[in-house]
């Protein structure tokens, strides 16, 4: 990445679905090559992405008008988060970050850190001061990013495909 790259964060639309699905497939393959069990059971699938777009959960980070990173942002709706083996930092409104995936052409360039900065700006714009996220125990890249961005480990949550480490960051 250079200072000349134009980075944009926006809600995804139906025209983005093919590009997003390609990025998700790349991420599934990367997780598999890393030896992870995360995303190896048919989730997320194309219908997941279509639902994200339909429900206005889908967001993309673009570099020079090309989709580089995908994420689903969901406000106040993650049933699995109601039962945590541990304790959340807050009990008010929150944004859940799910399905973060980076295009292979942009992997390793620090874009997920930029994505999380954009998500914080989005939270502020929505007057929400909590961002919650979970990840697999073996997703070292995401665990490092969450630590570097100031997320606090809160405990474990059970999702459909297994136990996840849960994190929260309060935006002040």
Automatic annotation (TrEMBL):
Protein name per UniProt: GNAT family N-acetyltransferase
Transmembrane segments: none
Enzyme Commission number, as recorded: 2.3.1.-
Source organism phylogeny: Bacteria, Pseudomonadati, Bacteroidota, Flavobacteriia, Flavobacteriales
Keywords: Acyltransferase, Transferase
Record keyword Transferase present: yes
EC class (word): transferase
N-acetyltransferase domain location: 7-168
One of the Pfam families matching this protein, by short name: Acetyltransf_1
Naturally occurring in which organism (per UniProt): Chryseobacterium oryzae
A GO term, aspect molecular function: acyltransferase activity
């Amino acid at each position: 990445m250079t200072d000349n790259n134009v980075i944009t964060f926006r809600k995804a639309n139906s025209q983005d679905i093919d590009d997003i699905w390609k990025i998700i497939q790349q991420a599934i393959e990367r997780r598999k090559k890393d030896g992870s069990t995360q995303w190896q059971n048919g989730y997320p699938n194309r219908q997941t992405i279509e639902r994200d777009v339909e429900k206005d959960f889908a967001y993309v980070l673009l570099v020079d008008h090309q989709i580089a990173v995908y994420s689903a942002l969901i406000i106040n709706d993650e049933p699995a988060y109601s039962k945590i083996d541990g304790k959340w930092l807050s009990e008010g409104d929150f944004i859940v970050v799910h399905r973060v995936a980076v295009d292979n052409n942009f992997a390793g360039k620090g874009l997920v850190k930029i994505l999380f900065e954009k998500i914080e700006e989005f939270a502020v714009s929505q007057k929400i001061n909590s961002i919650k996220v979970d990840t697999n125990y073996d997703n070292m890249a995401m665990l490092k990013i969450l630590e570097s961005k100031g997320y606090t480990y809160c405990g474990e949550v059970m999702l459909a495909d297994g136990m996840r480490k849960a994190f929260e960051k309060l935006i002040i």
